[in-house]
Write a structure and sequence with these properties.
Carb_kinase_PfkB-like; alpha/beta; UDP-N-acetylmuramoyl-L-alanine:D-glutamate ligase; transferase; Carbohydrate kinase PfkB domain-containing protein; 203 residues; Ribokinase-like
Length: 203
């Protein structure tokens, strides 16, 4: 990554255990991940400084109740520096169990871009009898400048302002393992935004 120009000057290395995760994959490539975060070394909110945000255009985060204090601190600093904030909903179980804090975060208006998959949107709109991926996209777009709902091998929905696109998935390859597929998709979408591509091209 360094040879590609990635700047590691703000990287912090702390002593202690890192996350352990069991990944279970079925014959269709669907997966479940079981992380253990109990003894993991974590960055603390008071360790962050404005220097960490110099030259940054996007802050990319994953939703997690275990580091909510850090999330709020990072977002506040990012907004003070005029940085866009991207949030991935991470897991339908996190959305299910900690939906209240997530709704507060989205409704704050501080999230510029939100990524979600079908399972996560189902939990997000669980009180809505008309819940659908399209309804979830509209809900996210009410609070975020960009909203993206990934529907796996079916398609992707994205909205920015009044523009909405439906982009079909590429079906040429057989899925054997979808672990981190959402992260790869989000990375590609963000790359497109940074490069000024259209909403459809970002998908």
């Amino acid at each position: 990554m360094g040879s590609s120009g990635v700047n590691f000057s703000a990287l912090r290395i702390k002593k202690g255990p890192t996350t352990q995760c069991v990944c279970l994959v079925d014959a269709l490539g669907n997966h479940t991940m079981r992380p253990c975060l109990s003894s993991v070394v974590k960055i603390q909110a008071d360790e962050l400084t404005k220097e960490d945000f110099k030259g940054v255009k996007w802050l990319v985060m994953r939703y997690g109740i275990y580091n909510l204090e850090v999330i709020h601190a990072v977002i506040q600093m990012a907004k003070e520096e005029g940085i866009f904030v991207s949030l991935d909903l991470t897991s339908f179980e996190l959305v299910r169990n900690f939906r209240g804090p997530l709704l507060k975060l989205l409704q704050s208006g501080d999230i510029d871009l939100c990524f979600a998959n079908e399972d996560e949107t189902r939990e997000l709109l669980r009180d809505d009898e008309n819940a659908s991926p399209e309804a979830a996209l509209e809900f996210l777009a009410k609070h975020c400048q960009w909203a993206v709902v990934a529907l796996g091998y079916n398609r992707c929905l994205a909205k920015c302002g009044r523009e909405m696109v439906r982009v079909p998935a590429i079906r040429k390859a057989k899925t054997t393992d979808a672990i981190r597929a959402g992260d790869l998709f989000a990375g590609g979408f963000l790359y497109g935004l940074v490069k000024g591509l259209s909403l459809e091209e970002c998908c």
